[in-house]
């Protein structure tokens, strides 16, 4: 058995209200139930495992948060050092906490994610250090497993798969896996119009590392990109929790938001890949500032009226 923390095997949940609204069968692939709370674990298990096989002493990544937490956990499990570069002030607190808890060397860079990634690439050129961002093909290889699971869980190929578009690594992996399965599934991806400073911090990436590859997929007619306003992202994220009971992090709702904007045409079966758990960015939820009430039934009834 290779390096693993039990990643994969995430549930495919029926999105009943979204299905009614869009006029098709919508399923939600809940990737937030991976070990560190995001889809990154699928690729990180492979990337860190192969780094061990090659004699690495450390792994390095740049991150908006989820890659950081995942790299830190898998490096700890493998007995490697993890060096994590994050843009200062641009990552959610719970993700930094996960990273620090696993013992990674977390460095906050005064700059953008793209600048942090360039530094990560430079460090990855040094002897004994392996870059584990999605530029590492082992990451893409591991992330392809989500498609295998979806096909197995449905027992057929979906007409549409929708997911977020941040750096483009997951889009690349999903497209590759569908091609390998000879599936004709259309891929719809949601990105933030305000890429550099979107509220959805996991896709706060101004210069996607896989932009050229995703552009080729668009030219081939396999991928459609929908650029979303902050309001569209917030609305889709809120509906998933309030209507479906699925609490995902804000960026995870980008695929669902893209479908809400586009509609599904004559598609019968649609899968939304929700890439991370809502507890990854709990600060996105407004605090309940209501005053406490007296411990009486009348007081409770008045409060909920």
Write the layout of secondary structure elements.
Layout: E1 12-14, H1 16-22, E2 25-30, H2 40-53, E3 58-62, H3 66-78, E4 81-87, H4 93-101, E5 105-109, H5 113-124, E6 129-131, H6 137-143, H7 145-154, E7 160-164, H8 169-180, E8 186-192, H9 211-219, E9 223-228, H10 230-244, H11 254-262, E10 269-274, H12 297-304
Parallel strand pairs: 2-10, 3-4, 3-6, 4-5, 7-8, 7-10, 8-9
Antiparallel strand pairs: 1-2
Question: Would you summarize the structure shown here?
Answer:
The protein is built from 12 helices and 10 strands.
Report the CATH topology name of the largest domain: Rossmann fold
| Arithmetic mean pLDDT | 95
CATH architecture of the largest domain: 3-Layer(aba) Sandwich
- Share in helix: 40-55%
Uncertain runs are none
Tally of separate domains: 2
Shape: globular
Q: How do the SSEs run, as a string of H and E?
A: EHEHEHEHEHEHHEHEHEHHEH
**Spatial sequence of strands, sheet with the most strands:** 1-2-10-7-8-9
Q: Outline the biggest β-sheet.
A: 6 strands, mixed
Query: What portion of residues belong to β-strands?
Result: 15-25%
CATH class of the largest domain: Alpha Beta
Q: How many β strands by DSSP?
A: 10
